[in-house]
């Protein structure tokens, strides 16, 4: 199945599908604040074309991986912070893996040395996926969020980028 998955940089025409994907994916169990876009313009300001890798099958977008530098500092340009979302009906089909491979290639081509991400401790499937993709824990913000009656850690993970 993973062989029929395509990956490319996001385009203006993807905005509506990506907004819908955010609505489907980001729920109380996997994010401290559910993503809600008020309109297409707001989405495009936050996620301009080319700031995400999108993956799909046939003509349907099934997932994305957003990336950006954590700060505007020149001394932090070697790091990309990422976030990933895969449509619930398309999970465990190799889409997330393809997106991770693609961002590592893109990062290497841009001279990036480190990928970082944050994941809630209440999302063990995501933590396991990131570990499978070569990420390791670099820190933990203990009881950082109070969600649905329980304190949840925010796990900080990272992966080195192999330079070609």
From TrEMBL:
Gene3D superfamilies in alphabetical order: 3.40.630.30
Top-rank lineage group of the source organism: Bacteria
MF terms in GO: acyltransferase activity, transferring groups other than amino-acyl groups
Span of domain N-acetyltransferase: 5-162
Keyword Transferase found: yes
Keyword tags: Acyltransferase, Transferase
Record-given protein name: N-acetyltransferase
Species this chain originates from: Paenibacillus apis
